[in-house]
Design brief:
Layout (H helix, E strand, L loop, with lengths): L3 H9 L17 H14 L4 H4 L5 H16 L6 H14 L3 H13 L3 H8 L14 H24 L14 H10 L30 H16 L4 H11 L20 H11 L6 H7 L3 H28 L1
Helix pairs in contact: 2-4, 4-8, 4-10, 5-6, 5-7, 5-8, 6-7, 6-9, 8-14, 11-12, 12-13, 12-14
Keywords: Oxidoreductase, Peroxidase
Organism: Amycolatopsis coloradensis
Protein name: Alkylhydroperoxidase
């Protein structure tokens, strides 16, 4: 865990979240407080990509359960390989914030050359491409799923860098090195510790069958997203468009979404397929409060992540 002064500074970074107001650490109660404490204990800091979910406590808990049980918890795969997967997915999804965060983590783990290569767009070995046990493959696929989810959320609510805008260019390298040290693995991150934050789910993810803890964590998270108040119209639009989507970027303009009349459905679809195209006008047009916006973005991101991972798993099995 970060020293007290740095921990307090990191808590204030959440003030840079766009469109919603996260619950401040000192005012957190109940489930939000439990997630915040787990974040600082097991992830090293109150990470804004998770904390920004706090207007919806259940979605906050789901995001943390996915992150902890995929990236943080001990398992058959090492943290460095998981960070490589997180970085590669983040690069593919055009999420510079996440590429930078997980580059810091790779630097702290002695994989600076890999981090630099990923940031530069170069080819590096994908840990998911090799021969893996069923347990290891489930762990790394869970990381990919989590970052297909988080990349979308981050693209909507956060800027291009995890460092506060107040940090001058001359201090950025030092600040990144300091933050990277707090992203190192903790020694006692036992698998499954976070899952009881959520009720049991019933959805089975075939890619997770080799790891019962991962399967349980993502089933519970799925129940949360299935339960949020997304209208049938929005669900139908997103499901219909994703059913024929191969994951390719839809284009530089938003002309591809012009045929969607409902503003909430339009926002959900852009989050799912091209979250980097979300802008102030699109969010304002949806007219949602903080909780509703977090839940819509979370649902669209989870739905897209499930689609991307299922297609990838099918291709690898073929």
């Amino acid at each position: 865990m970060a020293p007290a002064l740095i921990r307090l500074a990191l808590r204030r970074v959440s003030r840079e979240v766009r469109y919603v107001r996260p619950v401040p650490f000192g005012r957190a109660t109940g489930l939000v407080r439990d997630v915040y404490r787990g974040l600082e204990r097991d992830f090293g800091m109150l990470a804004p990509p998770v904390a920004l979910h706090s207007p919806s406590p259940a979605v906050l808990a789901a995001s943390w359960v996915m992150l902890r049980e995929s990236l943080v918890a001990a398992g058959d795969t090492g943290r460095a390989d998981r960070e490589v997967v997180a970085s590669l997915v983040s690069r593919a999804n055009s999420c510079p914030y996440c590429v930078e965060v997980h580059g810091m983590a790779l630097d702290s783990l002695g994989r600076s050359s890999v981090a630099s290569a990923i940031a530069a767009g170069e080819t590096v070995p994908d840990p998911l491409a090799g021969a893996l046990s069923a347990t290891a493959r489930a762990e790394l696929t869970a990381v990919a799923f989590t970052f297909h989810y988080l990349n979308r959320v981050v693209s909507v609510f956060l800027g291009p860098s995890p460092l506060p805008s107040s940090v001058p260019d001359s201090a950025r390298a030092r600040a990144k090195a300091v933050l990277g040290r707090f992203l190192r693995p903790v020694e006692d991150a036992s698998p499954g510790v976070s899952v009881d934050l959520l009720p049991p789910g019933s959805r089975d993810f075939s890619w997770a069958s080799g790891n019962p803890v991962v399967a349980d964590a993502f089933s519970r998270a799925s129940l949360v997203f299935d339960s949020v108040g997304i209208s049938p119209v929005v669900r139908d639009v997103v499901f219909r468009h994703l059913s024929t989507w191969d994951g390719s970027p839809p284009g530089l303009s938003r002309a591809w979404v012009d045929g969607v009349d409902d503003p909430v459905a339009r926002l959900a679809l852009v989050v799912a397929k091209a979250p980097y195209q979300v802008d102030d006008a699109l969010v304002a047009g949806a007219g949602l409060g903080d909780r509703e916006l977090v839940e819509l973005v979370g649902w669209a991101s989870f739905t897209a992540a499930a689609h991307r991972v299922s297609r990838t798993s099918i291709r690898k099995a073929a």
